[in-house]
Amino acid sequence: MPFLKSHPDQELKDHLLGVWQLARQLWGDRKILPWDSKLLGDLLAIVTLTHDFAKATRYFQNYITSPELGQKKSGPLESHALLSAIVGYFMAKTYLKDHPDNKRLSYMVFLAIKRHHGNLRDITDECAVFGDKEQELLLKQVEAIDFSLLKETWQSIDPQLPLTTSFGSILTQELLKEWVYTFKDELRQVRRAWLRSGSNDFLLEVDQLRVPNTTHQQSQLQDYFRFLILYSLLLDADKCQVGVRDYRLHIVKLPADLVDTFKNKQDWEIQGLNALREEAYQEIAGNLDLADKGNIFSITLPTGLGKTLAAYNFAFKLREKRLQERGTAPKIIYTLPFLTVIDQNYQILSDILENQTGHHILIKHHHLTDPVYNMRTGHEDETSYSANAAKLLIEGWSSEIVVTTFVQLFETLIGWRNSTLRKFHRLAHAIIILDEIQALPIKYWPLAQQMLEFLAGQMNTDIILVTATQPKIFSGLSKVIELVQPQKYFSQMGRVRLEINVNRRTIDEFVEDELREQLSANPEKSFLFILNTVSSAKELYRQLKNLTSEPIAFLSTGVVMKERKKRIEDIRDKKYRLVVSTQLVEAGVDIDFDIVYRDLAPMDSINQAAGRCNRHGLGNGIVRIISLVASDRGRSYAHMIYDDVALDITKKILENYKEVDEKEFLNLIDLYFTQAKSKMLLNESHKILQAVQRLCFFAEDETKTSVSDFQLIKEKGHRENVFVELDKEAEEVWAEYERIIQINGFYEKQEKFNAIKKIFYEYVISIPVSRLTDLPPEVNHFRYVCSSQIEYYYDRNLGYDSKGATIIF
């Protein structure tokens, strides 16, 4: 007997029921204030069980069973999202007939289904794009449904729906046509309601961003969080049910004393700097009871004083505490601002977990993550997933502990893309560690404060802010709980002294006036030079090569990742005394030097640079702040890449000093952030917050601010990806890529590329092209530097030859 299919190898009823069951498992017993638990569960049933309803049309069934499937795109008649969304809307409206928020919640159901294969848009525009053309198409689809087959499919679905009347018993062509005919009027009413709620009286005003949060301000974000919980659960369950057919959730018991056990095995001597680390570690752990009073915490300690281990330890203990209180164990999400230190922190966690192996326990996630996912549920039982399935599980944060980037976190929290919003529900009931929170752009502080406050206050999420600079993101809020007294530790620091000379000099002048003599006077000392642009770093490197014959390491993102990693390892192993780098080494890279030179930068960057100097307190470290300018234009390299306001504040503070001891760093940083917050422009945060409140995710009108305008990293100008065939491995991986690109089937091609993606991108660099004219040829979607052309496009010491363009990082 024929049956309706959702996918080539799956019946429609099995898919719908599978998505519903998986969505329930994914959410579990979590409770959040924006949603009544029963209401969320019932609407989730409607969303998941109707999201592919229109796959019942003859058009879709012919398409899904076609031998040419995967080689041609579906057309408008084969589409299923809009008709399915209308069915979901009217079903939700029936269920919510006595609810005061009937239309609003029903419309959320409609939006979630309509956009489950695409990115979100402005919800008021969604109301407006339903005309005669759409209506005619929908009526054709309704007429192409075999209702006898559909009713048979619906027999197993009906019992799971929260309706008093069996939907299958009233399911007719006439009913669906009536819904299509009346839907335009429904949308008109919904649009009026949303526009009224978006009035100036309702929305957060810009002046409110300067004062601590209020209940009124937080309530205005409720629709955004309610909708995205519903939407993300549908997305995650739908993708996993199809792409990871045998996926099952596994509850994992993680001991609260994991870090204690790991630390005790290291046999570290508790003296000197280690004694201070131990004191801070114990102070933070001893403040666990403060979690009874709130769930936004702060750990502020000098660089190198063990913040990472202390934060992990507190998080594991807090996880156990929340498990006892709520009955569900929160996910730990550890986030960092920079890709360069993800592997380093992931390895620390791997060492801590030791025998607790498997990617269902620990994953790292960024855009270059290797698509490998293994699950071990016993001593011998291990499941390994295909590259595509592994990619789905990693991108959905299907693990107890996730190590990821600020970009992944904040573009999920403040997002519009289907691919990132899929994991939005993971933020509820989680423990989120924000390491180096000061790296968040100041212009986004008010936005981040509002969104993180809502997570903490309404979604039962714990937030742990970890920093060496104590930014003022949450200043004025009594809700932030200090887990350690920073002044006690900063006052005991004496590893580093800042020496300040912000007189403007060219690189030539710097080398002649100072550097030549310093290198001669300190032959046993190691030197790190941190510059602001690739071009200035290259120039200094060349001048150093003229001063000495000893090896010099050069670091920038113009050097392929494989070589960059090797150089950092060699630097750790003390194979280089002299290193020239862009600011990428400030991103928590664990390297140590006697003397650090830092071209002028905002105060928080200077503090990070100081963290690369005499980290272990074995001598007297010196960090010299200089101000370099381009010889041809006289413009400072700092002003080429940093915000003028941040630089001016820093310069005015530093002009009052010739030297600063490390114990005074906290006072300078506190002064910097106080002044920066008072001068920051609130307009961008304000506009994006209003877009969040209006559910304006993406706007065709470029003059209208939308959630999509939030970008943590904004590229300046167009960039091109360049593959550099640097060695034998690069030649082999490129040859494999060329074989993969010839594969016709989309999914097979994706699977094969995912398997080589990590190694492939070890040889890819991203370059700005606005000022470059001599680019490598484009081959199969990448600029390609073959091995025979290496010397023309790529310097083995300095990386890509940028032809003079000003490149940062």
UniProtKB/TrEMBL annotation:
Annotated keywords: Antiviral defense, ATP-binding, Helicase, Hydrolase, Metal-binding, Nuclease, Nucleotide-binding
GO molecular function: ATP binding; hydrolase activity; metal ion binding; nuclease activity; RNA binding; RNA helicase activity
PROSITE patterns reported for this sequence: HD_CAS3, HELICASE_CTER
UniProt xrefs under InterPro entries: Cas3-like_dom (IPR054712), CRISPR-assoc_Cas3_HD (IPR006483), CRISPR-assoc_Cas3_HD_sf (IPR038257), DEAD/DEAH_box_helicase_dom (IPR011545), DEAD_box_RNA_helicases (IPR050547), Helicase_C-like (IPR001650), Helicase_Cas3_CRISPR-ass_core (IPR006474), P-loop_NTPase (IPR027417)
Annotated signal sequence range: none
Annotated SUPFAM superfamilies: HD-domain/PDEase-like (SSF109604), P-loop containing nucleoside triphosphate hydrolases (SSF52540)
Gene Ontology BP terms: defense response to virus
Domain HD Cas3-type intervals: 5-240
Keyword Magnesium: no
Domain called Helicase C-terminal: residue spans: 506-672
Lineage, opening ranks: Bacteria, Bacillati, Bacillota, Clostridia, Eubacteriales
Stated name of the protein: CRISPR-associated helicase, Cas3 family
Gene3D superfamilies: 1.10.3210.30, P-loop containing nucleotide triphosphate hydrolases (3.40.50.300)
CDD domains: Cas3''_I, DEXHc_cas3
Family according to the record: In the central section; belongs to the CRISPR-associated helicase Cas3 family. In the N-terminal section; belongs to the CRISPR-associated nuclease Cas3-HD family.
Keyword set includes Transcription: no
